[in-house]
Amino acid sequence: MDFTFTEEQQAAVEAAKAVFADVAPDRVPSPALTPGAVAEEFDRPLWATLAGSDLLGLVLAEEHGGAGLDVIALCLVLREAGRVLARVPLLEHCATAMAVQAHGGPELAALLGDAGRGSLVLTVAAHGRTGHDPAELAVTARREDGTWILDGVQTSVPWAHSADWIAVPAHGGDGEALLALVPRVTDGLTLADQYSTSGERLAELTLDGVRVPDAHLIDAPGAWDRLHRILATGTCALALGLGENVLAMTGRYTSKREQFGFPVATFQAVAVQAADRYIDLRAMEVTLWQAAWRLDAATDGAGGPLPASGDVAVAKIWASEGVRRVVQTAQHLHGGFGADTDYALHRYHAWAKQLELQLGPAAAHEEALGDLLAAHPLA
Fold first, then answer.
1. SS3 state of residue 89
2. Strands 165-171 vs 122-124: parallel, antiparallel or unpaired
3. Could you write out the DSSP letters of every residue in 314-336?
4. Are 236 and 365 in contact (CB under 8 A)?
5. Helix or strand or coil: residue 129?
6. What are the pLDDT digits (tens) for 237-267?
7. The whole model's pTM is what?
């Protein structure tokens, strides 16, 4: 079996490394010292650079000005973004564009050219009313006078204040989730400020009789489920990149910090803890690529006896637990220096906690995996 990435995927990584090479996590105030958001919107100059490097159209077809790559390529780029805490809606934008490209009609497809150029920003409401319930159950959709009427609330919508269009999952009462593309400025839609653990500006999105034409609605079976899985897998990629950079920071610090005349990295207790976190990262990596590969497979049943959601659940288990262990060990091995707000580690800790919250508790994913195993015997 060949586990190497394709030339196109490797080229995407090199382009991402070049873009993120000059990005510093401390471009904005520290979340530990800022009561509200660290900035009103995302990093627009970085967004423009990503657009200029054709990374915003990475997963779009050539007919829309994109490179026609896959979920694996997107996760490779997100891994690099996670290393530098890039404050851009890269995951939400690209994942929503993939859903529009796969299932949207001509009117929605017309948005993809501007999305690939970065002049139009997409995001998605994926956390439901509370962050714990299914997002598609938080909003109802009903037909009236030839249009769809949306009512409900979605919490913690990332980058909503800066996006042009927001993808909103909803249920129409027949059991199948719908996906509505709603302009940020539209009658009946209001945004209330919320703030992430990492200090980013989120939004509570309230829909009160929002009218959506048929042309802006995606009702293809499985469209929302696939988008949700891509979002989860992309979050795992961000967590992997973040964790890898945190372990590298820890290695550099413990190699220079001396105690009793020796670098603390040479002490067995320090080396064992760092080795354990390295194992966590390698497990996060292999489960991430398994999940991304399954999402790119031609059919949901390809590649294993379980649906792709099983591989996504395993990746989420490792990412949510692993990224927490990595930053906690890093803080411990840095000692008091890790809490210094002039040093970047505390920012990585805040971002890791936010990613862990987005992924959800590992116990919930283990329960979902158990249900899948019960429904799909491996014998």
1. coil
2. parallel
3. HHHHHHHHHHHHHHHHHHHHHGG
4. no
5. coil
6. 999 999 999 999 999 999 998 788 888 898 9
7. 0.96
